[in-house]
Structure formats: structure tokens, C-alpha cells
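OP here, attaching both records as promised.
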Amino acid sequence: MLSISEFSEMCRLSPQALRFYHSEGLLVPADVDEQTGYRSYTFDQVERAMLVTVLREAGMSVKLVRRALDEPDAAPDLLRRHEEEVRHRRRAEDEAISDARELLGSRPEVLLRRTPEMTVASKPVPGTSAEHDWDEVDAAVAAAVQDVVKAVESCGAVVSGVPWRAWAGETPEQKRRSLTAEGPHWLVKVPIAGEEKAIAGLPEDIEVQAFEARDELSIFIPGRNSMAKYGTALSRLFTHPLQDAYLDVSRMRHLLHDHGVETTAAVCELDRTDDGPEDGQGVQM
């Protein structure tokens, strides 16, 4: 029998770690003295200690390590799934580091620009909840954009600009449905160009719209969407000084660049009288 100190030295595991693994059922001593509480181990437990160490160093949780040891046949699949999660986490961390480097190196600035008129193909985005689950929204929006792009190219037209998403509230029916769980809550807009005959060949679920030229405030924030980034964009836009003008939040857009999202809002002069959005690009938020 090996004392806990001897077993600790042999396996390169601290006595504290051995006590923890005992409490978690990963490495139960061969004997525990009822009077002193001293733990003793056998030499053939070294192999189990090695497996515990390797799996823990691989980043597996205590729960997964226990399953891998208790179900040897399932262990390879458990390790494979853990590896996929680690790779996904590493990619997310790499993206976050890149975002942080870019944000710290150059803080996002609000820009005033003139956006030209254009023709857009618009389609509702199905399958998203009313909550701001950005991963869910991003996946559904990306799929909808891809559908529109394929339809545009298949009829002989071309994509002529950066797609964007907007809140689904261009019609009374959309506004009503946007307040329900089913939605849709978002629309995708894809700028297009082509002959009138080609554009007319788009499927019925894609609406062709005229986007009117307008002044906009714009801010680009790199990386994946999050509620914090969205809130930051809104804060910077609404605190940007304007002279004799205001932001029309009913016409906000979220342009979908490859490495981040650009949030824009239409700038309106104070003496302008509006009965509602002229170009149907959003909803009062």
C-alpha cells in the first residue's frame, strides 16, 4: 500500500487534488483508516490516476472525466465532442481577441454620410424569437440573405451592395406580427441591379423596393453581435450632436459586413413633417 504522500509523489498529483478526486469519485483510495482518515492507495491505481490527469489536462470537466472512466466504450466519443467544443471556444476567443485589439486600437467613430438611392430585394426572416438572441438572429439572417442572393443571381440580376437587416415593421400587418412570438421580427434587404425583366423574375416571397437617398449617421463595430455592442452603437448614435436635425429610429439599418455590423439611422431635419417611413426600412423601436 502507498500512503497519500507516496502516491502523490509518484503520480505528480498534490494531496489536495487527490482528496478532491476522492470526493468526486474519480480516484477512490484503496483504503481509508476509519480512525485517522489516512488514505492509502495501491500501485495498480497509478494507471487510473494517469488517465484522470490526462483527461483533466485536456480540459474535460470532472463530470465528463467520471463518465469517460465509468464508460470506457463511450470515452473516445466523449473526448471527440469535448475536442469540438474546445476548438469552437478557441475560435470564439481568437475572434474576441481580434475584436478587442481593433476596438482598443481605434475606437468606433460615428460618421455622417449620404446614402444613395438604390433598388433592394426584401424578404422576411423566419424562425427567430422576439428576444435578442444574437446567435440565433445572425444564423437566420445569414440564411435569408443567402436565399435572396441565390434568387437574384438565378434570374440574371446582380447584388450591388452590402446586405442589411431591419426590424419587420413596414406594414400594419408586419407591425402586428412583430409583436407576437411567431414574427417575423426581421427583414433582410439586398441591394440589386439588373434589367427590369430580370428583376421581375424574382420569387413572390421577395419584394422589390425602392430605397430613397438619405443622410445617415453610421457606426461600425467589429466582430460578432451582442447586446452590449448593439447598446453601444445606439448610445453613440443618439449622443452624436446634430444641428437642426434628429435621428429617425424607424429607419434604422444593420449592414452585414464580413467582419462586423454597421448600425445606421436616418437623419431628418427638424422642420420636416413625416407621416411615417418613406422607404419602409424599419420600425419605431
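Record two, same layout:
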Amino acid sequence: MINSKNFNTTIEGKSVDLFTLKNKNGLITQITNYGGRVVNFLMPDKNNNVLDIVFGYETIEDYLNSRESYFGALIGRYGNRIANGTFTLNSENFNLTTNDGKNNLHGGVKGFHKVVWNARQIDIQTLELEYHSQDLEEGFPGNLDVKVIYTLTNNNELKIEYWAKTDKPTIVNLTNHSFFNLNGAGEGDVMSHIVQINANKYTPVNVDLIPTGELAFVEETPMDFRKPTKIGKHIKNNFVQLKYGGGYDHNWVLENWNGEVQKIATVSSPKTEIKMEVFTNEPGVQFYTGNFLDGSEVGKNKKVYHHRGGLCLETQHYPNSPNQKNFPTVTLNPEDKYHSVCIYKFSN
């Protein structure tokens, strides 16, 4: 485990800390209220060797100085990309900060991943985080109050629940950006991991990784993960979508979406026999294979995070939904309450 003293600091007048959650089976995760980040997740492999399977750093200074700013973080107000950093809501145009070329990515320059959340550890298995996002923060309308609860359940689930409410119409799309390697963080790439995603369609993107608006079938393409498939099997195929993303960096359209929590994906490591199942009530999931990692980031235990060294399964609404009328809406009105659920369930 990481010493919580490594995170004891103050940022913009708010206290930062590191919180430890444990379940009755001995699983441990540590989370900091700086960006609501999952810092580590300790999981035994088939031989009962305890591995840390998420990317992160050992000190708050490392997070503040890192080039890769999303490891383990809560993402908001809008996970993924909004084209040209602009959208129209109720006939009013809003201009967002742009931090991915001409686009807005993961909430902007100072999204939820870079703020200090108010934290309260409810019990040894539960952490509550809250944040008040002011009207027009990063360009988004409305005062938004967000609550996130992390629970490490006795079913070996890391359950993440999100709630939000606003005082004027706005858009919301919250997610978590943990990078997983089920062989252990920093232990090579994830190309041998086996992935299955319950989706027969995905949202193709242009060269800027903005969805075109099409819902394309995965059948007879490298995007087909309906059956368990090694990540590396098709990632180097001559397929334009893989070229745009440098690998997998796309949103899959989940089957039978009705707003209820359902199992949507499974990842497993043949080496450690650790399995991760993903559940959500969201209509999509962004599957990302660490294509932009280049080995320059050195994480916990001086482990180097190499190209394609980790994978993300970010439960979400589709990228650029505010500008695509055929995508499920991300509008939140004052009379509405936003509620999103993501569960990562582990076994071996």
C-alpha cells in the first residue's frame, strides 16, 4: 500500500488526502480526492500473488507533474470529446475550453480530474466525494453539484455511482479513466488480454477521433469483440479506424440498453487468470488500449508505463453527443437527476 502521508497537502485551500478501502476478502484500493483518482487496486492472481492492476503514482507531486493527467481519474463534466469545443442547447451557443487540438476533451483544461473533491469516508468500504462546479466552469452552463460514491463490495466489485443536479439546462457525461493491466501495472503490454464486449455496433470516428454520427456494425471488422478476442489479434490490421486511433480508441454501442445496470464487457489475463467484468446503466463504453502511452511515464514502484501497457473501459454516453441528434441525449435539466453506475467486478 501507499503511505497516505505522500498525499497530505493543500491545493487551492482544499485538503488532499489518500483513502484506503478494504473488503472482507482482503482486496484493497486507495483513492485520492485529488481528481477522485483510483491510485491502486490490489488483487491476488491465480497463485495468490498480490498484484497492483491499475496505473498511478506514489505521491501527489507525481500526479501534479505528470504528462498523462487522467490515470484513475473521475472525468467531467463531459467524458470524451466535443467537436470544436462548442454545442448548442435550447438555441444558445456555448464555447468550451479546447484542450485536444480544436476539441474539448474530458471536460477541458481543468476538468474534474484536476479538482480537489470534498471527501468523507463513510466506512472501511465506502468513500463519498462531492464537488460543486460553478456556472460556466470550462464553458459549461449551470451550477452543477456532483456526488460520487466508491464502494469496494464483498463481491469484489469496485462500484462507482455518480449523481448530479443542475440549476439550469446543461450537459453531463461522467466516467472513470482507470488504466488496467491484469498482469500488473507496468508489466508489459495488454495485447494478450482477452476482451469481450456486448455490442454489435460502434461509432466510427474521423481523423480527429470525433464520431461521424454513424452507428456501424462490428461484424467482419477488427471492432468485433462479441466473442472473447485477444486485443492484439487485429490491432495492427489495415483498417482506417485503427489507423485514426493508433489502435482501439472508440465508443461501442451497447446492446439492449434500457437504462438499467447490465453486464457489458469482460477482460481476462491468461497469465494471471484475473478476470474483470464491467457493468453499467450507460449506453456506451469507450475501449482504449493506451495508444498514446510512450514509455515516458514512470509510475508506482518505478514501473514504466509502455505503449499499450494498459486498457480503459470507460462507461459513458457517446462522444460528441451534444452535436449529434441521433445519439442518446446528455442534456440535464433542473428538474432531472443524473445517476450513472459503473461496476468493475474482479475474480480469478
